[in-house]
Specification:
GO terms for molecular function: cobalamin binding; cobalt ion binding; nucleotide binding; ribonucleoside-diphosphate reductase activity, thioredoxin disulfide as acceptor. Its EC number is 1.17.4.1. The structure is a single chain. By secondary structure, this protein is of the alpha/beta class. Among the domains are: 134 residues, no CATH class; 211 residues, Alpha-Beta Barrel (Anaerobic Ribonucleotide-triphosphate Reductase Large Chain); 137 residues, no CATH class; 128 residues, no CATH class. The protein contains 30 helices and 27 strands. Strands 5, 6, 7, 9, 10, 13, 14, 15, 18 and 19 form a ten-stranded mixed β-sheet that branches. The chain has a three-stranded antiparallel β-sheet with strand order 16-17-25. It has a three-stranded antiparallel β-sheet with strand order 20-21-22.
Length: 943
């Protein structure tokens, strides 16, 4: 995609001949702007809180490409468009948003000498625009909030602060956190330099200890909403395992959780967002214990471990390592905190050890580097690189990574930072965090189970290729604009880490042809990164992280966020005009096709999933393929260790770390958590957090429904409604259909009301007088009477389609080529004959002609024979609407569902342990180590 050539001097390089990037087109067409290649449409964005009915946002006539979902356009409009709503300055088009950001990047790139010629700068602008427009990647939220506006140009989402053992430093910590929260980002800090509560002050008194100072910071975070009230503050607090106050730190949140239980039982409102929850402390931060190899070996061997004074370093107390480790697991079992960070592993992969140790992380634990530093993020949508023939487009992926890394590095040239210390460190070390979303969807679409050797090999190969390419580009940038300022001091250490990554790449065991091909490309990328780095150094001290991608993942229409698996197989989809549909994730049919299933089989399996929410006993699906469709929730939820193994497969190819919480069932024991944390250390992870279902009181939990049901009800007047039978007249029209299913022949006679409408069904199957014939007669009478009493035909279709028993197989009906049973065929035929198109579409039942039309036009709906005016004629040639795109797996969503999480609850009868969104009132879904709202894009952490 790019090469370096001699070019004129730019920016601070005046008077010297410099090289610049020569950029070739990959996604764009010469002479055609990316905006002119897509169809644009106007939409009205209205966002309401479904509980109160209050309209929380409204903007009419916003402009988006027709292939952007309603949800994605809503999130981008409400979160990222700048200017007061209703004012002329308010952005109304995605074009304005992308131009505001991309043109700023181009101008900075030209100013600082990144491009060989103005033509290369223009191609850079067009390529970046095309990828953003087509949702191939997204910058992190602060870029969209701030770049190109009158506000400070803050581009980083992740910050690490530093606190020394002085009151001035502690109070400065409060101030710096507040400024970062206000700017739309999160911050992490290690408090281990603060003296323990058992150590003396110079005045002769005793120190307060770090836990006491956490109270003030927690209260501050609880009052600040970040990014212009777009989400609540996100923060991480860390304490080293050898700190004398470590036990108090471990138990802090667990004790508060017990307080919540007591107050709740006393009648106080302790739900998340409840009016009394504010009395509880330490709830606004994620807590992590920084453990060492020395401590973990003591746990493994059953030894003692020394807690050390902060000022002198001497051991003040020895503790049983296993008992302390047990306390960590018990606290995590009770309230999900603390998580673990593995200190020696983190610092063994540190590119800049000469500049200081890595002591902390950002709130979601993916960014780990020097104190008082920041990282700007961008994430690729992996599913976009899967071609129609099932191949991973390696060439486009490599070129996309090169372009994105270039843009991310350019942003540091013009970025503003909340503190001078952070600005100085970030400009000197230029930390970047390229990552990805939709890994879970990609694995499913390619027929790989998330918890499988093939899935882990493919994930490792893609991550290795991404980071190897990023460092290769970083070395190329170093040749043009110079290595990062701290490189000379850390050159040998940095090159050692690049070789460690390359060695890990060589150690990956290939499982299939797809990961084998990607690994070959990754090997070439690492070889080039090593050679170019030896010659030029590197522009960036860090290149990659795996972030939660909450808000931006939704903006890219991703099915899965970060490294997470699919939440569930069914999905809640908003439609233009305000409606909603329940659909089976589009990756499911793609996966079934990859696994070799025929169209009729795929349709039957998808129909089954739409009704049941899982694949167990789906008609025609081989049990050995079940694992491909395992998800985070539901009947076949991925086991906790499956999440840990996936993290372990990917971690050696990530500069930073991975934002992920290992979800565990409510039945998980303390011993299970100990095992997860111990294996995280053994497998080489940098950080690990767990969440046990229903461990927190301040969540909308299943027992809330039970308590509501237990409340005594007022005596009500009971009104009994009885159906009346509407009999058919003596003479009525009817239709007789002959059929064959799996070689068994039969006849169906359907009697109709004169005003149209099915009133009776008679089935002839088997010899007269046989048991089968008698059963079918009785069944026919029962169905006919129910129809006359008003039972809708669609209810029978919902219940009896996909019913599976012999005889089954091929039929002689061109509209229904395969049937799982006689009942499956009968009610599909009745649906085709007597249900309107809209109801059949919702049930996923289409005729052969309708399926043919969908393949040709993208829509099942019949095309009108004539149009009245030019406007109608134009509408026929425009792109299909969301409703027209409704596929065989679409059906009306349950009325109580407003997000995919709530949809899964409604279908499977489960309760997801997730918080409610403060803006729209819907249940959020996990995204890395935080939560994201599908409805409005709010997150509980950084995006």
């Amino acid at each position: 995609m790019t090469e370096t050539v001699s070019g004129p001097a730019r920016g601070g390089a005046k008077g010297r001949s410099r090289k610049g990037l020569k950029i070739s087109r990959v996604f764009t067409t010469p002479g055609v702007h990316p905006y002119d290649e897509v169809t644009w449409e106007r939409r009205d964005v209205v966002q309401t809180n479904w509980k109160t009915g209050e309209t929380v946002f409204s903007q009419q006539g916003v402009e988006f490409p027709d292939f952007w979902s309603v949800n994605a356009s809503t999130i981008v409009t409400t979160k990222y468009f700048r200017g007061a709503v209703g004012s002329p300055d308010r952005e109304y088009s995605l074009k304005q948003l992308i131009d505001r950001v991309v043109k700023t990047y181009r101008a900075a790139g030209e100013e600082h000498g990144y491009f060989a010629t103005p033509e290369d700068a223009e191609i850079f602008e067009h390529e970046l625009t095309w990828m953003l427009l087509h949702q191939y990647f997204s910058f992190n939220s602060p870029v969209w909030f701030n770049v190109g506006t009158s506000a400070p140009q803050q581009v980083s989402a992740c910050f690490i602060l530093s606190v020394e053992d002085s009151m001035e430093s502690i109070l400065n910590w409060y101030k710096e956190e507040g400024l970062i929260f206000k700017g739309g980002s999160g911050a992490g800090v290690n408090l281990s330099r603060i003296r323990a509560s058992c150590e003396l002050l110079s005045s002769g008194g005793t120190a307060s200890g770090p836990v006491s100072f956490m109270r003030g910071a927690d209260a501050s975070a609880g009052t600040i909403k970040s990014g212009g009230a777009t989400r609540r503050a996100a923060k991480m607090v860390i304490l080293d395992v050898d700190h004398p106050d470590i036990e108090e730190f471990i138990e802090t949140k667990a004790r508060e959780e017990e307080k919540i239980r007591v107050l709740r039982d006393a009648g106080f409102d302790m739900d998340l967002g409840g009016k009394d929850i504010v009395s509880v402390q330490y709830q606004n931060a994620n807590n992590s214990v920084r453990v060492t190899d020395e401590f973990m070996r003591a746990v493994e061997n059953g030894g003692m471990f020394g807690l050390r004074a902060r000022l002198t370093g001497e051991v003040v107390r020895k503790v049983d390592a296993r008992k302390l480790f047990r306390k960590i697991a018990e606290a995590a079992w009770a309230c999900a905190d603390p998580g673990l960070q593995y200190d020696d592993t983190i610092n063994d992969w540190h590119t800049c050890p000469e500049s200081g140790r890595i002591t902390a992380s950002n709130p979601c634990s993916e960014y780990m580097h020097l104190d008082n530093s920041s990282c700007n993020l961008a994430s690729l949508n992996l599913l976009k690189f899967l071609t129609d023939d099932g191949r991973f487009d390696i060439e486009s992926f490599i070129k996309a990574v090169e372009l994105i890394i270039t843009a991310m590095d350019i942003s540091i040239c013009f970025a503003d930072f909340p503190t001078e210390a952070i600005a100085e460190t970030t400009r000197a070390y230029r930390q970047l965090g390229i990552g990805y979303a939709n890994l879970g969807a990609l694995l499913m679409a390619t027929g790989h189970g998330y918890d499988s050797d093939g899935g882990r090999a493919l994930a490792a190969a893609i991550t290795s290729l991404m980071t190897g390419t990023a460092y290769k580009r970083s070395a190329e940038l170093a040749a043009i604009v110079g290595p990062y300022d701290g490189y000379a001091r850390n050159a040998e250490a940095h090159k050692r880490i690049i070789r460690k990554h390359a060695a890990a790449n060589d150690a990956v065991r290939s499982v299939g042809p797809m990961d084998r091909e990607i690994l070959r490309a990754a090997t070439q990328a690492w070889d080039a990164a090593i050679k170019l780095g030896e010659k030029h150094g590197y522009r960036n001290s860090q290149a990659s992280v795996i972030a939660p991608t909450g808000t931006i993942g939704l903006a890219m229409d991703c099915d899965t966020t970060g490294i997470e698996p699919d939440l569930a197989l069914v999905k809640f989809k908003k439609l233009v005009g305000g409606g909603s549909m329940q659909i089976v994730n589009t990756t499911v049919p793609r996966a079934l096709k990859t696994l070799g299933y025929q169209p009729e089989q795929i349709e039957a399996i998808v129909d089954y999933i739409a009704e049941h929410g899982h694949v167990v006993d789906a008609p025609g699906l081989k049990p050995e393929h079940y694992e491909v469709f395992d998800c985070a929730m539901g009947t076949r939820a991925i086991k906790p260790m499956g999440h840990v193994k996936m993290m372990a497969a990917v971690q050696p190819f990530v500069s930073g770390a991975i934002s992920k919480t290992v979800n565990m069932p409510e039945s998980a024991t303390v011993e299970d958590i100990e095992e997860i944390y111990f294996q995280g250390w053994k497998l080489g992870l940098k950080a690990l957090a767990i969440y046990r279902d229903n461990c927190k009181v301040g969540q909308p939990l299943s027992n809330a429904k039970a308590k509501k049901a237990e409340q005594p009800k007022e005596k009500e007047v009971v009104v009994e409604y009885r159906p009346t039978r509407r009999r058919l007249p003596k003479s009525r029209p009817s239709r007789t259909t002959s059929f064959t299913v799996g070689g068994a022949e039969g006849y169906m006679t359907a009697g109709l009301y004169p005003d149209d409408g099915l009133g009776e069904v008679f089935l002839k199957l088997g010899k007269q007088g046989s048991t089968l014939a008698g059963v079918m007669d009785a069944f026919s009478i029962a169905v006919s009477i129910a129809l006359q009493y008003g039972v809708p035909l669609e209810k029978y279709v919902e219940k009896f389609t996909n019913l599976r028993f012999e005889p089954a197989g091929m039929t002689d009906d061109p509209d229904i080529r395969m049937a799982q049973s006689i009942m499956d065929y009968i009610f599909r035929r009745l649906a085709l004959d007597y249900l309107p198109f809209e109801k059949r579409a919702a049930l996923g039942i289409f005729s052969a002609e309708e399926r043919r039309r969908q393949l040709e036009t993208g829509s099942y709906e019949p095309v009108p024979e004539s149009v009245d005016d030019a406007g109608d004629a134009a509408s026929l040639t425009s792109a299909p609407t969301d409703t027209q795109k409704a596929t065989a797996e679409a059906r009306p969503a349950p009325t109580q569902a407003h997000t995919s999480t709530e949809l899964v609850e409604a279908i499977q009868g489960t309760v997801a342990d997730a918080p409610l969104c403060f803006t729209c009132g819907t249940k959020m879904r996990p995204a890395g180590s935080c939560f994201v709202c599908e409805g409005c894009g709010n997150t509980s952490g950084c995006s």
